[in-house]
Amino acid sequence: MAQGNVVIRFEEVTFGYSKENLTLDEASFSIREDAKLTLMGQNGAGKSTLFKLITGELKPDKGGVHVLPGTTIAVAKQVMARESMQETIRGYFAHAFAETPYNLEKRIADTLEIVNLSAPLDKPVGDFSGGQQARLLLAYALIQQPDVLLLDEPTNNLDRDGIDHLTAFLIMYPKTALVISHDADFLNSFTEGVLHLDAYTGKIEKYVGNYTDVVEEIAARVERDRAKNAQLLKTIQDRKDKVNFFAHKGGKMRKLASKLREEVAVAEENMVGVRRDDRTIGAFAIPAQPFSEPIVSLKAVKIIQNHEPHRADMDLTLRRGAHLIIAGPNGIGKSTLLRTLADGNDPDATIAGNVKVGYYRQDFSGLDFSETAYASLASAMDQPDNETIRRTGARFLLDGDALATPVGALSEGQKGLLCFARFVLQEPGLLIFDEPTNHINFRHLPVIAKALDDYEGCLIVVSHAEDFVKQIRFDQTLDLATLIK
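and the corresponding structure tokens:
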């Protein structure tokens, strides 16, 4: 662990969006300069909220957040802000500075080289792929040359080359980095410690070691605490039984009962507050709409090469039960193909009429951010049923409070789980997934992969998560790179 000055210190910080639901409860920890740490916690625990407390965007209800004077901080956010989509690359990076520097274009070029991206300065941000936007988000933070770099799910949408490039950069990065990510291999390559945010206690604990070691250490500690509590409970019950017996006796027996009561009180005080480990969603199935006719027809696709579109002819028909994986590097046009197909405005990429389509967009733009999560689930059903909605929400860790929350206020991980809950209720004939592992806790991914593997409808997936893809049956592969002439 780096042993420089403490650059960030939380001192008994309490913060919550409501008095009943605290994100942090008297949390204390410190970060030293040049440290490279992972911020760990389940979906919805408040990791992004903690970043906002560090930057000063949010203020604690109690306690103090102390930043070493003169320390500069920059955040690489999870998703591109909607208001940035219409800006050019030049305009987007100009917002990183209080005053636009005279050498802005050179600084943009130098920073884009770091993230391995070529981008015309007059091209709108919204015209870049999800993976390219992920690199822009990182570059936006890097161009500020901060003392502390906060990265929120930086590997989302990145292909393998992009992840390798980011990993090499972080290993060599000479300043402080705090990273939120569910990519264990990525984190293990450079992290030297973990801050664990417990969603139930609102406490933060600091561990030394790589991500996998810490996950195992936490699991072992939970089991030790449970075993200790089980032994204490046995002792407590034994003492209580004797208290009940001796309390009705006279003389010395009554004094013994009093002493036993004191032992019970001590034992109860020694009970360990067992951390409820990250919960995992239960097994689920996505019912498929019966459909006997061809579901998807692709006669041509648009391939992006050097930021220029090219048409590639093809002939692909998908029926119920077909599982298609679409491959290719960032920026080649995978998300564009999915969007074009779902929007239905290209005669060469069509979906049969009357097919129910479930579309997982990597930016969740298919969700209505203004409605509650409950209303979002209800809108996915032909005939909304309160009991079914709440039972399905609970299966995806969306409790009553989460269901009453506007979709836009949910964490990115909760939005992802909301999408899967909607698919269960929708019973689609076609499922389209654009990077479905983004933002999702790694504990949930095997469960989700099993549900997709078992799905009996037509399935189309774009994903750079190799371990996830290997768990799903795909009978066809469309590699866009092979279509380039």
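(Above: one complete record from the training split.) Residues 280 and 444 are 6 Å apart (CA to CA).
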